[in-house]
Specification:
The complex is a heterodimer of chains A (100) and B (197).
Chain A lengths: L1 H15 L3 E8 L3 H11 L5 E4 L3 H5 L7 E5 L5 E6 L4 H13 L2
Chain B lengths: L5 E6 L3 H5 L20 H12 L18 H15 L4 H12 L13 H38 L16 H15 L10 H4 L1
Helix pairs in contact in B: 2-3
Classes of the chains: A alpha+beta (100), B mainly alpha (197).
Chain lengths: 100, 197
């Protein structure tokens, strides 16, 4: 599953890029299943529930997984659709940092 | 089932910035309500109406009102909540458009290149009609000219069943065609004998 695949990459990236705040948003799943998933896969960043899908709607999410890169001013500077790997995360963070 | 499906990465931002997002829409996404708060049957009806104008983002061409998906259900709940708070239809559509772009509207609003979507087919129809009218006028004018040259008469004389081209082979071909088309080589049946005298 895409989210399972990228979880390891996100965990590693969150440890590598200490200056970046990583936040997971759980889409269409409940707390118990999320806790079980995190206990099994591990997580080096906080995860939040989105019970009514409001965050997903506000961000214009079409499917999962999607990743948004937000700059210090709160602007979405990059959006990635699909599972990420470590190299892609690193290059997108570099690009987001360079964004005006 | 989806699990950890959406990751938000806040670059050099205070954690509160990203954490603050879930409970309310992005700042400036929607202004103060412009209508009156709805309730009861009217609220149900308007929720369904506006749901019918919104495209379900995770479905294939279904409206939010028609889709059974959880995404559509959540969107419908937001529509309902906003109507109950007094937001009008345009404000609600604009709210979803901010997230999903114009794609989320099943009827594209009449602005920018969307005018082409609404009036393009009509313009093409009118232009096509103009071209056909021009071509018909041009061809009838040139046919009249050709007849005038062939018969030596004026350009206003139109070809008729009584006239034949001056060229003998062409005239024979025309007579054959008339015979096939009308049953008579001259294009008109011969007069009955009783009237022939």
């Amino acid at each position: 599953m895409p989210c399972f695949e990228e979880q390891a990459a996100l965990n590693a990236a969150a440890r590598t890029f200490g200056e970046v705040q990583f936040i997971g948003v759980v889409y269409e799943d409940d707390e118990a299943r999320t806790q079980a998933f995190l206990a099994k896969q591990g997580s080096s960043y906080p995860s939040l529930l989105d019970p009514d899908g409001r965050t997903a709607i506000a961000y214009g999410v079409f499917g999962v997984p999607e990743t948004f890169f937000i700059d210090g001013a709160g602007r979405i500077v990059e959006k990635y659709v699909g599972p990420l790997n470590r190299a892609t995360i690193a290059s997108l963070i570099a690009r987001a940092k360079g964004a005006p | 089932m989806s699990r950890l499906t959406l990751a938000l990465l806040a670059l050099m931002a205070a954690p509160s910035l990203a954490v603050a997002q879930p409970s309310r829409p992005p700042a400036g996404a929607i202004e103060a309500p412009r209508s009156r708060p709805l309730s009861g049957a009217e609220l149900d009806a308007r929720t369904s109406d506006i749901g019918g104008l919104l495209r379900c983002p995770v479905c294939q061409g279904l409206s939010v009102a028609d889709s059974p998906s959880s995404m559509a259900r959540n969107m419908k709940a937001e529509v309902r909540e906003k109507l109950a708070a007094g937001y009008d239809q345009e404000q609600i559509l604009a709210y979803f458009e901010r997230s999903y772009g114009e794609f989320v509207r099943l009827d594209p609003p009449m602005r920018g290149v969307n005018w082409l979507v609404w009036f393009g087919p009509l313009a093409v129809l009118v232009a096509g009609g103009g071209v056909v009218a021009w071509a018909v006028r041009r061809s009838s004018r040139s046919a009249g000219g050709a007849e005038a040259i062939a018969s030596g008469s004026t350009a206003s004389d139109l070809p008729s069943r009584e006239t034949l081209p001056a060229d003998a082979r062409l005239a024979a071909a025309v007579r054959r065609v008339r015979e096939l088309a009308y049953g008579w080589p001259d294009g008109v049946p011969p007069r009955p004998r009783s009237q022939a005298s």
